[in-house]
Write a structure and sequence with these properties.
Two copies of one chain form a homodimer.
Chain A (H helix, E strand, L loop, with lengths): L13 H14 L8 H8 L13 H24 L4 H18 L1 H7 L10 H15 L1 H4 L4 H20 L11 H20 L2
Helix pairs in contact in A: 1-2, 1-3, 3-4, 3-5, 3-6, 4-5, 4-8, 4-9, 8-9
Chain B binds a DNA duplex through helix 2.
Chain lengths: ~200, ~200
DNA sequence: ACCTGAACACCGTTCAAGT
DNA sequence: ACCTGAACACCGTTCAAGT
């Protein structure tokens, strides 16, 4: 569903248009690997035009992934708003996995080895921003901050990846949401049992 | 470090030689994406020769990933052997993350969207085999099997991916091993606190 | 300042032909 | 039965040239 505004990228925002086109290509699902020429074509520009705005294909993919993290952050932040602390971990955890399932290709790109976060501070920063929603939870639970933050994050991320990859076999009766609920439920119960020592 | 045996693949095991060469290319680190021609070149065979043994590049990558899972399985199984049940989760968890760090490129390929497990039963099967070491742990802990198995697996996998991606910022004093130890330690403590209800 | 067009080296894949 | 060699359409990237 591309908007039908006139090609404003001739006036200076080709960079933005390329990122937007990349996101749309990922959302429309067909694109497996997302090529530079493919994105240029979608915008209606020559194959070499992107090089005015991105050093190479990797840099373009990184910019798209960065935008993905910004959206990810917005989703996680919105999910936590107005939720009682006691339910926040489960709620944000569900939103995390929900984002992965709503945007599978984008989520995969965000964690793809094709875009190295180490080589791209802007991308790393956007990723960190998104993770704050999760890492902040630890304090709210009144638990040893560091371990709890890392394990919550790792649990939810691992769950997303394994479910997306269809690696966790769901039993016949059981659905995904129910499994997520029970796993997160057991996890917070464990944390609370520890806190009550 | 390629072995210097004569080219036996002219006698029928080119398939095996290609997989082996792929594993070596991944281990020697340089290869980011691992191409079909690249692997063929490493074996000393024409670019089209692999098509006698693999339908396409994806199938070759899947076979390499499958071999990765078999090695992964061997490492996890060996790690659990002769370890007291009480320490088994931590020990195998450490071995899981250890494998990821010893074989980063291979580990990434094993979980790459470039090789779809859904489309490849042999690969999926090898992956499941490797995971049994982890999922079997739940029973040993005497806990609700399903949730514990899934969350252990998700935690350890998420931790591997986030650490590999350099996403978890390690404090100045803290080293990776210590963090892993504390995270896994807190996790099993939580499980046990629950079990003791 | 920003984009096009042609060119380069490379890739995955196909297919006729060799042994 | 298994492999080669040439060919195809395609890709990322560079660079001179256009406006």
């Amino acid at each position: 569903m591309s908007t039908s505004v006139p090609p404003a990228y001739h006036h200076g925002d080709l960079r933005h248009a390329l990122v937007e086109a990349g996101l749309e290509l990922l959302a429309s699902g067909g694109a497996e690997s997302l090529g530079l020429r493919e994105v240029a074509r979608a915008v209606g520009v020559s194959a070499s035009a992107p090089y005015r705005h991105f050093e190479n294909r990797q840099a373009l993919l990184a910019a798209i992934a960065r935008e993905g993290f910004l959206r990810f952050d917005a989703v996680l932040r919105a999910a936590g708003e107005g939720i009682a602390p006691a339910q926040r971990l489960q709620t944000i955890g569900r939103a995390y996995i929900g984002f992965a399932f709503d945007n599978p290709q984008l989520f995969r790109l965000m964690f793809s080895p094709e875009v190295s976060k180490d080589a791209n501070p802007a991308l790393m920063e956007a990723a960190r921003l998104a993770y704050q929603s999760l890492t902040n939870l630890a304090a709210a639970e009144g638990l040893p901050g560091r371990e709890t933050a890392v394990s919550t994050w790792a649990l939810v991320h691992g769950l997303s990846v394994l479910l997306l990859d269809d690696q966790i076999r769901l039993g016949g009766i059981e659905d995904r949401e129910a499994l997520i609920g029970r796993v997160l439920g057991q996890f917070v119960a464990g944390l609370r049992a520890l806190a009550a020592h």
